[in-house]
Amino acid sequence: MSQAEPEQLYAAREPIFPKKVYGNFRNLKWVIMIVTLGIYYVTPWIRWDRGPSLPDQAVLLDMANRRFYFFWIEIWPHEFYFIAGLLVMAGLGLFLFTSALGRVWCGYTCPQTVWTDLFILVERWIEGDRNARLRLHRQKKWDFRKARLRLTKWVTWLLIAMATGGAWVFYFADAPTLLVDLFTLNAHPIAYTTIAILTGTTFLFGGFAREQICIYACPWPRIQAAMMDEDTLTVGYREWRGEPRGKLRKGKLDPEQGDCIDCMACVNVCPMGIDIRNGQQMECITCALCIDACDEVMEKIGKPRGLIDYMAFTDEEGERAGKPPKPIWKHVFRPRTVLYTGLWSLVGVGLLVALFIRTDIDMTVAPVRNPTYVTMSDGSIRNTYEIKLRNMHGEERPFVLSLTGDPALRVEIEGADTQTVVVPADTALPVRTYVVAPSGSVPAESDRVEFRFWVEDATSGERAFKDTVFNGKGN
Amino acid sequence: MAKQPEKKKDDVETTGHSWDGIEEYNNPLPKWWVWVFYATIIWGIGYTIAYPAWPGINQATSGLLNWSTRANVAEEIETFAERNAPKNTALEEVELASFVEETDTELYAYARSSGAAVYQTWCAQCHGSGAAGGVGYPNLQDDDWLWGGTIEDIHTTIRVGVRNPDTDEDYLRVSEMPAFGADELLEEEQVEQVVNYVMSMSGEPKDASLVEAGQEVYLDNCAACHGDDGQGDTFQGAPNLADAIWLYGGDYASIRETVWNSRNGVMPQWQDRLTEAQMRAVATYVHQLGGGE
C-alpha cells in the first residue's frame, strides 16, 4: 500500500464563465426558454368559465377544497389515479427521451438549466461576456464599478427569483385575488413562506450553485446511465477527425494534423465547465452549445462542420472503420424505445378511457359496524350505512336512493320522509341511511344478505350503484 | 451497455491508495458540501438548546423557546373555543325543535359534530361508542325511549340525569319501581304469574297456564305505571313492556329479577359539568342517531 497522501479531499468550485455562442442549438434553446417560461408564468392567469359555484381559473390546485382543475377536467381526491397516471407517463416519457436522445431533458427543458441560462444571460448583459467577467472575477479590489455591477446583477437575479417563487403560488389559489392579497399583505403566511423559500432556492441555484446542482444534488444524471446504450444519440467529439490536435500556424493547417485547432471554443461556452473532447462524461448535460461553437470555427477555417456533433458510440466506431453513417431513425427506433413508447401509450390510453367513462354522480357506502344491527320496538332489524352522495355537476341535483335485493328490505333516510336528497353543486354529501327488515323476515333472521344500493340523478336519469351487506339477528 | 471512453491513465488524479495494484481515484467532494455538513452540526446543537432535548434526572431540558406540545394543545383549544363562541351562543338561543325540521343549516351541522365529540367524551363510557348501549344502559339508536325521544326530552334527560339525588328539579326524571318480591308486596307465586303474563305481551311465556292469573296481578299492581296494555309511560320513565326491546333482558330469569328486586337505573345530571351549548349539541347528536321522534 502506498503511503502518499492526496493533495485535496475537498475541491473548491471552479467558477465557470460561459462565452456567448451563436448557432442552431443556441436558437432552439432560446425558443424553448421562452416557451417554458411563458407556460410557467402565464398558465395561472388563463380563465375558464365553470359556472357560478366553481372557480374560473383554468389550472388550479385547490388544496383547501381538494379539487384539481385543468381546463375542462375536474379531478376529485378519489380520482387521484389520474395524477398518478400522469406522473407514470412523465417518468416513462423521460425514459423514452433518454434512451433515444440522451440527456435531452437536462440540456433543454430542466428548470435548473432554463433558469441558469436566464441568469447567465442577465450576467452577460450586466457584466459583459466571458473575458470581461473573468477580469471582474480576478480583480481583487472592490472598487465602485465592481460593486455596482455585482449589485445590479444580484438585484436583477433576486427580482427574477421572486417572480419565480411568486408565480408558483398562483397555481394554488385564485391568481388575481392572491396578487392583490400579496401586495396588501392579506395573503396567507404559507403563501409568503413558499415565495420566500422558492425565491431563495432560485437565487442560489440559478446564480451560484448552477452546475453543482446537476453534478452533486440531482439523482437523475446517475439514474439515466441505465437508460442509455451505444445507440443513444449524445453530444460527442469525432476524435478520429480531430486528432492529433494542433494550433493553426500562420492561418495554415499542418497536413499531418487533425481538424481540431485546439481553440478551446467548445470549452469556453460550456455551462458545465468540461471539455467534450475527453469523451462523454457525467457532467455533460448535452446542451449542444459546444456543437454550435465548434461549427462556427470549422466554417471559419474551411473544414466541414460536425467535429463535435450529436452522435452515438456506434457512429464513432463505424466512421473510424469507414462505414457509411447510420441513419438517425435507426438510432431512434430500437426495441427499447419502442417498448417505452408502447408503455407510455398504454398508460395514456388507459387514462383517456378512464376520463371518458367516469360518471358525474357517484356514491360510497360505509356500513356502520358499531353496532352491526339495531332491534326496533316492533321487532324489526335495522342496519345503518354512512353513504356519501357525490354530485360532480355544477348545479344542485335531486338524488333518489333505492335498493335491489331481498324484497323485504326498505330504505329510510335520517331526518327525511322521502328517499330523495338534494345534493348541492360540486359536493359529496354524507347521508345517514337505514335499511330495515321487518320482524320475522328472511334478512332479519339470517346472518347476512347481500344487496345493492342505487342512486339515481332525478334530473338526468344517470345511475350508480354500490354492493353491500345487511346483517340480521343471526349475525 | 454504454462504453466508457478509455481514460488516459496519467489524466486521472488518484488518492495515492493502492491495494494489489487497484488504485483509488480522487473524486473530491465540493467544499460547500463540507460546509453544509458543518452547518447541520451547528444547527443540531442550536436545536437542542432551543428545544427540549437533553435528558436530566427528572425531566429533559426545557429549551430556550419553552416549547411544549401540551401548551400548544391548550393554546389551540383556547383558539377554537374562542372561534366557536358565537356558534355556541346561537346554539343556546335556538329553538331546539327547529333542528328536527331544518337540518341543512350550518348551526345544525355544528351542533351535530360538536355533539358527537361531547358524546364520545362523556357518554360513550356507558352507552357505548356506537350508542348501542348494553344491559342496563339504553340503546340510543332504537326508537324506544324511557323518558321520551323528542329532542327536548333528550335534552332534559341529559340536563337533570335519571334518578339523580342531587338535582333541584326532582319532579323530572325521578321515579321508583318497588321491589315487589324483596319487599314482600307480592307472593312468590304471584311474581311467577305476572312474569309469565309480561312475557306473553311481546312473545311467548315460559308457562302459559300462569298467564291468566298473571294478568290479574298485573292490572292490580303494574298497570298504574306501565299501562293497561303494557305500553309504558314516558312521564314516569316506565318502560314499554309490549315491544321487542328489553333494557335488562327479556328472558324469564331477567324479568323475574326485575320484578323481585326492581332495577331503577341511574344517570348523572350533566348540567353541572357541561355547558348549555354542549348539552344541546349532544342532544342533537343523539336525536339523529336513528330513534329521535
Automatic annotation (TrEMBL), chain A:
GO cellular component assignments: plasma membrane
Signal peptide segment: none
Gene3D superfamilies tied to this protein: 3.30.70.20, Immunoglobulins
Record Pfam families: Fer4_18, Fer4_5, FixG_C
Coiled-coil zones: none
Keywords from the named record: 4Fe-4S, Electron transport, Iron, Iron-sulfur, Membrane, Metal-binding, Transmembrane, Transmembrane helix, Transport
Keyword 4Fe-4S in record: yes
Highest taxon of source: Bacteria
SUPFAM superfamilies assigned: 4Fe-4S ferredoxins
Residue ranges constituting the 4Fe-4S ferredoxin-type domain according to the UniProt record: 249-279
Keyword Membrane: yes
Transmembrane segments: 28-46, 80-97, 154-173, 185-205, 338-357
GO molecular function annotations of the record: 4 iron, 4 sulfur cluster binding; metal ion binding
Protein name stated in the entry: Cytochrome c oxidase accessory protein CcoG
Organism: Aquicoccus porphyridii
Species classification: Bacteria, Pseudomonadati, Pseudomonadota, Alphaproteobacteria, Rhodobacterales
Gene: ccoG
TrEMBL record, chain B:
Gene Ontology cellular-component annotations: plasma membrane
Cofactor note: Binds 2 heme C groups per subunit.
Residue spans of biased composition, Basic and acidic residues class: 1-14
Membrane-spanning parts: 32-54
A GO biological process held by the record: proton transmembrane transport
Subunit description: Component of the cbb3-type cytochrome c oxidase.
Family: Belongs to the CcoP / FixP family.
Protein name per the record: Cbb3-type cytochrome c oxidase subunit
Organism, as annotated: Aquicoccus porphyridii
Originating gene: ccoP
